[in-house]
Specification:
Keywords: Membrane, Transmembrane, Transmembrane helix
InterPro entries: UCP028101 (IPR008311), WD40/YVTN_repeat-like_dom_sf (IPR015943)
Number of strands: 30
Largest sheet: 4 strands, antiparallel
Number of helices: 2
Pfam families: DUF1513
Shape: globular
CATH class of the largest domain: Mainly Beta
Radius of gyration: 19 Å
CATH topology of the largest domain: Methylamine Dehydrogenase, Chain H
Organism: Vibrio marinisediminis
Distance between the termini: 33 Å
Protein name: DUF1513 domain-containing protein
Length: about 350
């Protein structure tokens, strides 16, 4: 049985609403604005204990902001219904469904006492279901919560049996689910099993059957963030939980039935990423991955698997690929557009972007 939203969550949402974040953002001195098409959605930091989710146009300029009860993380988008979901940062206490056209909050779901959310989710390809990464607080047992979109986002099933600490889940073109399983048992954000962690890239059928599970040679590489190239290639980004002076590859590529293949860079280049990959996106030819703690992003050739550009970007955060063009956000407010290595442009927005972006297709 799902719990209703707690009084604390309600109070946090109402408090956040007081600063007007749910209103459309108007240019200074204007009483109306030319309609912009919602294209990108991501979470943002708005000062001490103030968080929001932002709907932006194709350049990353904000159209509207909605307040969040606590810090957000990933975004799922259902373009057919005009819905998006902002997921709380792990160990998350809520996810919020909203209409990205109007800014209306559709549902605000809170985690039960013994569960938490891991910060990510994805809609099924037909938009009828929402799959959410969840965990059992006492054990970190991984769960994919399945919610019926047509029935007010009621939970209808749970998938499990693939490991501890799932982080990101994505839907493949054929309807399978790919899950980045971190393998870490945590108390809050404190890891408890680094010596025995078992991360994996796991694939489930749309009905929850475990189809395939792949691992890396180094079990201290916690598999966390995922992307696919629009076809059958999955990219996974890792957080290294081993010795601080070691810098193993933090990105790998996979196709069904094959092995995980690490992407290539020199150890000193991997060191720039500060042991953590955040957002990943792939075009036909290129793979781009960001690192907020490393204040940088890298571009790899998908054909060779080799790093071809390593660029500085303060608090590099979200990235999406649309029609072969990457859009990259940052906590500094800069938004970059790049189609290939060393061919980029940038604008400055007033939004301190946080963690991830998703594109409305």
């Amino acid at each position: 049985m799902l719990q209703m939203v707690t009084d604390n969550t309600r109070r946090a949402l109402l408090k956040a609403a007081l600063f007007g974040a749910a209103m459309p953002i108007l240019p200074f001195g204007c009483t109306s604005m030319v309609a912009s098409k919602p294209t990108l959605i991501g979470c943002a930091l708005n000062g001490r204990d103030r968080y929001s989710v932002v709907v932006a146009d194709q350049q990353g300029k904000a159209i509207r902001q909605l307040p969040l009860p606590s810090r957000g993380h990933g975004i799922a988008i259902n373009a057919t219904r005009g819905h998006a979901v902002a997921f709380a940062r792990r160990p998350g206490s809520y996810f919020m469904v909203f209409d990205f056209h109007s800014g209306e909050v559709v549902q605000l779901r809170s985690a039960s006492d013994h569960r938490h959310y891991y910060g990510h989710g994805v809609y099924s390809n037909d938009g009828e279901l929402l799959f959410v990464t969840e965990g059992e607080r006492s054990t970190s047992r991984g769960i994919i919560g399945v919610y019926d979109v047509t029935n007010h986002y009621e939970k209808v099933a749970e998938f499990t049996g693939f490991g501890l600490g799932p982080h990101e889940v994505i839907a493949m073109p054929d309807g399978k689910l790919a899950i980045g399983v971190g393998g870490v048992h945590t108390d809050g954000r404190t890891p408890l099993n680094l010596n025995s962690m078992q991360p994996s890239l796991s694939y489930l059928s749309a009905t929850g059957e475990l189809i395939e599970q792949q691992t890396l040679l180094d079990n201290r590489l916690s598999i966390r963030h995922l992307a696919h190239d629009g076809d059958n290639t999955v990219l996974c980004g890792q957080q290294y939980r081993g010795q601080p002076e070691e810098y193993p590859p933090l990105l790998a590529m996979h196709q069904a039935g094959g092995q995980l293949t690490p992407l290539e860079a020199e150890p000193e280049q991997w060191a720039r990423f500060n042991h953590y990959i955040a957002s990943i996106a792939a075009s036909k030819d290129w793979i781009l991955a960001t690192s907020p703690p490393g204040n940088c992003y890298g571009i790899w050739s998908k054909q060779s698997g080799k790093l071809v550009e390593l660029a500085s970007l303060p608090d590099a955060s979200g990235v999406v690929a649309r029609e072969g063009v990457f859009s990259i956000s940052s906590g500094s407010g800069s938004v970059l557009t790049q189609s290939q290595p060393r061919d980029k442009s940038s604008i400055f927005t007033s939004i301190p972007w946080d963690n991830h972006w998703s594109a409305i297709s």
